[in-house]
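User: My instructor asked us to take a sequence, write out its structure as C-alpha cells, and then describe one feature of it. I'm not sure where to start. Here is the sequence I was given:
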Amino acid sequence: MVITVKAVKTNGEIFEKEIERDVKEIQLSYRELQSIDLSQFNKFKNLKSLYLSTNHF
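Assistant: Let's start with the prediction itself. The C-alpha cells for your sequence are:
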C-alpha cells in the first residue's frame, strides 16, 4: 500500500511524495520544505527514522 505524504515548500507549492507504507526510514532532507503535518507519519507502522534536515521549519 502506498501513502502520499504532503508538505508545503518555501515557494508555496505543495510537495507530494508517494511512499510505501512498510518502509523503515523516510528521507525528506533538502526538499525546501516549510511546513509538514507530522501526524501523517503515524500511518507508517514500521517507521524507525524520519530525516527532515536542511529544510526551512
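For the description part of your assignment, you could build on this observation: The mean pLDDT is 98. Try explaining in your own words what that tells you about the chain.
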